[in-house]
Structure formats: structure tokens, C-alpha cells
Amino acid sequence: MKIAIIGAGNLGVSIATGILHSGGATSMYLTRRNLEALKGFEEYGRVTLTRDNREAVAGSDILIFAVQPLHFASILESVKDLLHDNHVLISTITGFSLSAMEAIVGPDRYLIRAMPNTAIAVGRSMTCLASNEAGKKRVELAAAIFNRMGHTLMIPEQQMQAATVICASGIAFWMRLIRATTQGAIQLGFDAKEARELAMHTCGGAAELLIQSGHHPEEEIDRVTTPMGCTIEGLNEMEHQGLSSSLIKGIVASYDKITQISKG
Ligand SMILES: NC(=O)C1=CN([C@@H]2O[C@H](COP(=O)(O)OP(=O)(O)OC[C@H]3O[C@@H](n4cnc5c(N)ncnc54)[C@H](O)[C@@H]3O)[C@@H](O)[C@H]2O)C=CC1
Ligand SMILES: O=C(O)[C@@H]1CCC=N1
């Protein structure tokens, strides 16, 4: 598979790292304006670094776009004459619809929107996918690419903004919870490094328990909460302080913002 990542910034580099570690490409182009920031990728023989998006598009079949929304339309315009029938265009760009892409490159192109998160770098992204009508023929290919680097779910395009909040922004939300747990552990006497280790691995274990068992979180909570014990004491205090409510309110605020951004 010949893959180009157009706009190798925070997300693009994470995707490139995930693809390289999962052996998911026969060749890869990475484009961005400041190539200095991509140092290290040169070590991989099959990676070409360039500022020239046209060179990357001409040399690849799968095009993954990871630029900021305001740059996307002009980049599509600048490469559309190079597109051929086999090109699959995958956009990770927030708030840029499939119909807006079709308006530039035409409705017959295979167009897919993907919403991964930065855990793609370590093969653990939750990636949501949606396609235009033509793209339905290539959506399994896109899912195969992203399944090598985590878990995928096909969704209607209307849910893409909600998926952005839960999965892409969600990484930051979970990081903050891990940091807060770390701070609590330090207050209880662990040094900073140990505290972080305890928080990260407990968080990873909780998610893995649910993934592997298929249980509802409350079922697992019930196994931990000894009557009159310390877990229920802590949990109830967290709820009195608004833990669930503040998370839900944050998610809704994030969604309101993305809706506002998408309206332009
Ligand atoms: N950062 C994240 O966790 C996620 C970001 N997204 C979306 O992915 C897109 C990229 O986000 P980030 O990686 O955070 O942004 P970023 O700003 O870190 O990366 C964008 C890259 O595109 C490059 N660029 C700008 N103009 C270019 C051009 N003409 N040709 C080639 N490269 C060019 C920039 O130099 C930069 O390195 C955004 O649309 C964002 O909404 C989606 C999911 C998660
Ligand atoms: O914060 C943002 O707006 C972008 C979209 C999801 C992750 N980063």
C-alpha cells in the first residue's frame, strides 16, 4: 500500500508512527512545511519527506489528509488534477464534510472521513469512519488500515462531530483524569514517578477489563465496593463533588464548540 500523509503535524505524525510500527505501508510520503520537525522518519527506508503535496499524491494510492481545516480546501484544489480512479482520499479534518470534499474533487472519488486519536501512534486508536456513496466501495480497505492501529466503528457522517469529542478530544479528557489520580497518589505518599505508573496502569486495566469482559462499568464497580468500605466512600464523595456531571458537561461544551466551529 502506498500511503501519503498530507500535513504531518501532531495527528499526522501519530498516524505515520502507527502505520510504520504496524507494517501497514509499502511506501509512505509525509508532507509538511517544516521538514526539520520530521527528522527521524528518514531512518525508515520507505519514507519520503517532502513539502510538495503534488509529489506525494502522484506517488501514492491512499491519501490521508491531516491539515488544519482552513488549509484543506486549497490543498485539495491544488492536487485534484492528479487524482486517478484508484485514489482513496481519507480526511481526518474536523468539521469538513464529505459534500464539501465532493464539491472540490467530484462525487465519483472514493472519499472517507476518519476520526482517529493520537493513541494511533501506539496502535490503540478508537477510529470512527464514514464515507460518501462512492467511498462505500473502499470503506473496508480504510477499516483494514485503521484496524491495524486500534479499533474502528462505521458511523453516519452526522455523528462525526460527536465522535470527535468522545474519541479525539477524549484522549485529553482521559489524560486529565490520569493526571488528577497521579496528584492524589502523590498526596498519599507515592513519589511522582510511581504515582503516574499506578494511575496509568490502573486506568489501562479498567478499560481492558471492560473490553475483554463486555461488562457494564457498574458491574465491575460492584465487585470493588465493599459495603461500608473505602471505595464507595470515595466514589460517593466524587459524585457529591460532581464528577459524572462535570464530565458530561465538559463533553457537551466541547460538542457545542465543534458545532460552532463547523458552521464556520
Ligand atoms: N490532534 C489531534 O488529536 C486530532 C486532530 N484532528 C484533526 O486533524 C487535523 C490536524 O490536526 P493536528 O495534527 O493537531 O494539527 P497540526 O497543526 O499539528 O498539523 C497540521 C500540519 O499540516 C501542515 N501543513 C499546513 N499547510 C500545509 C500544506 N499546504 N501542505 C502540507 N502540510 C501543511 C502544518 O505544517 C502542520 O504540521 C485537524 O483538522 C484536526 O481537527 C482530528 C483528530 C485528532
Ligand atoms: O481540539 C480540536 O479542536 C481538535 C479536534 C479533535 C482534537 N483536536
From TrEMBL:
Annotated Pyrroline-5-carboxylate reductase catalytic N-terminal domain residues: 2-93
Keyword match Amino-acid biosynthesis: yes
Where does this polypeptide localize?
A: Cytoplasm
Domain of life, per lineage: Bacteria
Catalysed reaction(s) here are: L-proline + NAD(+) = (S)-1-pyrroline-5-carboxylate + NADH + 2 H(+); L-proline + NADP(+) = (S)-1-pyrroline-5-carboxylate + NADPH + 2 H(+)
One short Pfam family name for this protein? Answer: P5CR_dimer
List each copy of the Pyrroline-5-carboxylate reductase dimerisation domain by range. Answer: 157-259
Kindly report, in one word, the top-level EC class recorded for this enzyme. oxidoreductase
Q: Please give the function described in this protein's UniProt entry.
A: Catalyzes the reduction of 1-pyrroline-5-carboxylate (PCA) to L-proline.
Descriptive protein name:
Pyrroline-5-carboxylate reductase
